[in-house]
Design a protein that fits this description.
Layout (H helix, E strand, L loop, with lengths): L22 H11 L17 H23 L4 H15 L7 H21 L4 H20 L3 H10 L5 E2 L2 H6 L1 H14 L5 H10 L2 E5 L13 E3 L2 E5 L3 H23 L9 H9 L28 H4 L4 H13 L4 H13 L4 H11 L5 H7 L1 H7 L14 H6 L12 H4 L2 H10 L4 H12 L3 H12 L11 H18 L1
Antiparallel strand pairs: 1-2, 2-4, 3-4
Helix pairs in contact: 1-4, 2-3, 2-4, 2-5, 4-11, 5-10, 8-9, 20-21, 21-22
């Protein structure tokens, strides 16, 4: 669908009329980063990249943003989010190479991926809000990874109207400055009176026009004199976050106005649509049934307690209905057949499994009424489409199950009592059961499933579940790792 060749930008709108030389982009990136590891992404990138780079760089960045959103959805604290996301940043979006050529490449990937996702997430208010929140958190995490010297260097590179005050000025205003931040030192940093004084003696202060800190004025946590605000360094990050967020929000709105001009580009637009339409980057649908976790899945083992225990609740619920009624209605058969296909059950084993479970149905009737639909799900009948297992969004879009039906999402469709009973049967403790019920009551069904996975793996898997087969894959990996260690 996409060409992997470079696209010439000569003569196109928003680009120079002459072809950009290979050295220009590196010089440009050195200028926008200004010897720092961070930037506010104020200017659009220049130069050329391939469509393959366009897509893979965006995917690498969106994985990080998805993880940030996943952690926030699971009520992780900022420190927990930072500990989870920091290694991902180091692996996929580092900016710390000492080799000039490699550093330029890292900067290029960081810069382009940010602007590519601006295009992806600028088309609606919901997408803009999501991108703004997660990018701001990413900026905050990266800033906290810098040393004090690197932080000051970055602040200076922004040319913002603030300066660190001298020791003499701090001494002259010491009483007023200390009184202004004393409450914050106790509340934010949890310091006692002795610790507050020691902290104040080491703290640096920024002098900045008061209009930049209007959100801090009601808190009475800064000293204000003649239109100038004196802000302690420990609140500097909030100022930078406010500035970054404001600039990015304005840029996203501006980008949304320019987006219709891309409608004629049949190469880039499908990629942007793909990335912003809920595409789950946590799980590759192309890997269904094709990895080491599916090697022992067959008609006999797929119904064993060992494997069923690794199903998400929707899979366990469907298996319960099948074992109870020895039959499932059409929507549940379709959902469960594709799920089993996704965990590695072959067509031959699927036919054996389903015919064995439909105990009240003769072989002739099974072959006439059910075999075709199973083969159809595997892409061997009808239009011969290789249907993919349903993700959580698809499952939640289907009609709610009626009495005697076992499709859908149990976190949405079961009563609180029934859901609690199912969770206890999965081995969850009462405190976890109650927490998951609360999450489900809020309508956060995928978050409830994610929390179950986290509890079942003793905190080893902390990932947003957006697909039943993702749950099974992660649960299977964890179970096998535990067996290996034992």
């Amino acid at each position: 669908m996409f060409r992997s060749t470079k696209r010439r930008t000569a003569g196109r709108k928003n680009f120079e009329s002459s072809i950009i030389s290979s050295s220009t982009p590196n010089a440009y990136l050195a200028n926008v980063y200004n010897n720092s590891k961070l930037t506010f992404y104020t200017l659009p990138p220049v130069g050329e990249i391939t469509l393959d780079e366009f897509e893979t760089w965006a995917i690498d960045r969106i994985k990080i943003l998805n993880e940030i959103e996943s952690c926030a959805a699971r009520n992780k604290s900022y420190k927990e989010i930072e500990s989870i996301v920091a290694p991902m940043i180091q692996q996929t979006l580092p900016l710390n190479s000492t080799n000039v050529e490699k550093l330029n490449r890292e900067r290029q990937k960081d810069y382009y991926s940010h602007f590519i996702l601006r295009l992806c997430f600028s088309r609606s208010q919901e997408l803009r809000t999501k991108f703004l929140k997660n990018e701001t958190t990413l900026f905050k995490i990266r800033y906290n990874q810098l040393t004090n010297a690197e932080q000051q260097q970055f602040v200076k590179s922004l040319n913002l109207p603030w300066d660190f005050i001298s020791l003499e000025e701090k001494e002259q205003l010491s009483t007023k400055l200390f009184n202004s931040i004393s409450a914050s030192l106790g509340y934010v940093l949890q310091l006692d009176d002795v610790q507050k004084r020691k902290y104040f003696e080491q703290e640096e202060f920024i002098k900045i026009p008061f209009e930049y800190v209007t959100d801090l004025l009601p808190q009475r946590s800064i000293f204000l004199q003649r239109g100038t605000a004196y802000v302690p360094k420990f609140q500097q990050l909030q100022l930078l976050v406010n500035e970054f967020s404001a600039k990015l929000e304005a840029a996203l709105i501006s980008t949304s106005h320019a987006f219709p001009s891309l409608d004629e580009d049949d190469r880039i637009l499908p990629i942007l649509t793909h990335l912003s339409s809920g595409y789950s980057l946590n799980y590759s649908q192309d890997s269904y049934g094709a990895n080491e976790n599916s090697s022992d899945i067959n008609a006999i083992t797929v119904g064993s307690k060992e494997i069923v225990d690794q199903f998400p609740l929707c899979g366990q619920h469907a298996m319960y209905g099948l074992r109870t009624l020895h039959h499932l209605k059409y929507t549940a058969r379709q959902q469960f057949t594709l799920f089993l296909k996704g965990i590695g059950l072959s067509l031959e084993d699927a036919l054996t499994f389903w015919s064995g479970e439909f105990k009240s149905v003769s072989i002739d009737k099974f072959n006439k009424e059910y075999k075709y639909n199973i083969r159809h799900s595997y892409g061997l009948e009808g239009g011969r489409i290789n249907y993919k297992p349903w993700d959580c969004r698809t499952i939640l879009s289907k009609p709610r199950p009626q009495k005697g039906e076992y499709h859908g999402c149990p976190y949405r469709d079961l009563s609180s009592d029934s859901l609690a009973r199912k969770l206890r049967e999965m081995g969850l403790e009462e405190k976890d059961v109650q927490q998951i019920l609360e999450i489900s009551d809020k309508g956060d069904y995928t978050n409830a499933c994610s929390r179950v996975l986290e509890v079942k793996t003793n905190g080893h898997v902390q990932e947003q579940v957006t697909h039943p087969n993702l749950y099974f894959d992660r649960m299977r990996q964890y179970t096998k790792s535990q067996q290996t260690e034992a």
